[in-house]
Amino acid sequence: QLMLAFCFDHIGLHKVRLSVHSFNKPAIALYEKIGFILEGTNRESIFHEGQWYPQYDYGLLQKEWRTLKEAQQL
Q1: Residue 22, Cα to own-chain centre: how many angstroms?
Q2: By CB atoms within 10 Å of each CB, which of 7, 40, 43, 50 scores lowest?
């Protein structure tokens, strides 16, 4: 949340994007919990432990983050 506050409040970014490999379930759960939205899938992006896995692309808009932040403060 601190990093998102820096990105949106201080730098003035409109959107924060990230990519995560599909086998990284804890990271995916965290990103979705804080409001990131799945925007795309890059199929068979990484070969890990003998298998191909997709990479997921997530995004969070400044207005979405502000709405979530306000809702949490109620």
Answers
A1: 13
A2: 50
